Amino acid sequence: MKMLQEMSVMGHERVVFHQDPESGLRAIVAIHDTTLGDALGGTRRWCYATEAEAIYDVLRLSEGMTYKAAAADLAMGGAKSVILLDNPGQEATEAQGRAMGRFVDTLNGNYIAAEDVGVNEEFCDWMGNETKYVMGGVNVSRGGDPSPFTSLGAFNAMKACLAHAGRPVDFAGVTVGVQGLGMTGYKLAKLIVDHGGMVIGTDVNPHAIQRAAEELDIKVIGDDEDLFSKDLDILAPCALGGVLGPEQIDSMKASIVCGTSNNVLVDPDRDGQLMKDKGVVYAPDFIANAGGLIRLAGLYLGLTESEIDVKVEKIESTTREVLDETKNHASAYEAAVTYARARIDAGRRVEA
Question: Which pLDDT score is estimated for 225?
């Protein structure tokens, strides 16, 4: 990968690499755009097949954070970080958390870290012992687990999708396939069940499947079954990204796609158009899953609880506005990027 060329194409400002021999930390921070302000974005701990795969992930995720913050009308830019693990499921250590905190601190607040896959409140507090530029902890940093807000925002986006599809904004009789029953997927499934919907769920973790089946009384299927091709009204990807490409879209029966995952589409331009051509109502991920960012960024920016709640609620109207604009674009994804970029351009003009 030609790093500077890729940064130029995607519009990144900085990509910073760091390794700490004592703790074994290997990490990357990608700052995409700070036109609207300093950038808050999660820290992902993951075992990547190659370093190139890790770089590609952090570049795409940070770009999405720029659009997510802008579309949510937050005075924040977009960034993300990844910690490269040696083995899948490698245990987190305080030494690595503190080392990551020291790394984040070198960026002087241009990047504010938070939770993502593999990082919890405790890890955020470990980072918080070394830097004030972290959100999502409970004892040292603040904000706590943002997943309830992510799930609620996606649920609000689902309501916009139902309305756009000309259906009643009512989950009674609606079947939703939730791919990934972790922190956000489980909470989204609960919201759907609580509002009268039916959920079919799956996860690579058998404990997550068992918990959802027992506590939510939903239908669960093994990871070896193809959730995407089942008879669903709504497909909700709530795990890792890159799950919808041409093959999956072709076999998919759901007429709505809306979940909590980032970067759902393998190739957003190509696959977004395939979805539109098939008549699928797609809530772009960085619009639908912005609730967690709104929560932590809102607290960081000094918003009140009620102001944060209003912004999470507004995900529904923002999704509806973007979906209505899809008719003027190649896809809902393009319409969403246009919506976000308009806010960034407006901020750039004010700055000038």
Answer: 86
Nearest to 296 by CA among 83, 100, 74: 74
End-to-end, the C-alpha distance of the chain in Å comes to: 34
Do residues 288 and 258 lie in contact, with contact meaning Cβ atoms separated by under 8 Å? yes
Q: With cut-offs at 50, 70 and 90, classify the pLDDT of residue 349.
A: low
Residue with more model confidence, 159 or 6:
159
**pLDDT over 90 at 98, yes or no:** yes
Annotated catalytic residue 314: no
Query: pTM higher than 0.85 for the full model?
Result: yes
pLDDT in tens, 235-274: 999 998 999 999 999 999 999 999 999 999 999 999 999 9
Calculate the average pLDDT of the chain: 96
Q: Considering 2, 68, 80, 190, which one is annotated as catalytic?
A: 80
